Input
Amino acid sequence: MTISQGIHRARSYLQAPGVNRAKVAEAAGLNWHAVNNLLTGDPRLSTLLAIERVIPPDFVAPEDVSHPKGRAA
Output
């Protein structure tokens, strides 16, 4: 899996219906700011790896997800 595929998978999981982002962050040992940064287009590799550890192995990310444009300057 490439980093961009991992980011897509993590974002898809965090945006899936019924997923509580705060609980995912807590289970991954992160704060909500780290999860929010991943969703807004400013991910860190350490955040991605931490979230990947708590994503169920049978979760399949959808193919057509638009990526955020990042923060406006």
Remarks:
- The mean pLDDT is 85.
- The CA atoms of residues 25 and 33 lie 9 Å apart.
- DSSP finds four helices and no strands in the chain.
